[in-house]
Amino acid sequence: MRTQLQAISLRIQAMKGATGVLGSMNRSMNLPALQRIAMEFERENDIMDQRQEMMDDAIDDVTGLEDEAEGEEVVEQVLEEIGVDLKNSMGETPSGLQSQTVAEGRVAQAIGGGGGGDPGDNDLQARLDSLRR
């Protein structure tokens, strides 16, 4: 019982000390000054962002980097001016592709002989040969 009372007393003393520290901190803080500092920081940060954006734009202009969409628009405008309509002038593409069979006369062989190879390679080659037939 006595130890419990001592523990409670120590907690009360700790809370008293924390209350004193918080009170002195509140008295030492100047809220209007902190607000002014925060507003100044925000303003300077905005100015820095604007300068960064201007620098990025200037670098893009100097290096000649353009968006792909802007480049396509310029090409389309030029083609319209000279009267070229790519969509209609190209016509239709063939719908069916003609397949050509390749004669099975020659088969590529590995250089260096076939001896001493992995038996799994021979099995795989046999399976590939059967698929070709």
UniProtKB/TrEMBL annotation:
Region (Disordered): 109-133
InterPro entries for the chain: Snf7_fam
Compositionally biased region (Basic and acidic residues): 124-133
Superkingdom per UniProt: Eukaryota
Any coiled-coil regions, as ranges: none
One GO-annotated biological process of the protein: vacuolar transport
Pfam families found in the cross-reference section: Snf7 (PF03357)
Protein's recorded name: Related to SNF7 family protein
Organism: Phialocephala subalpina
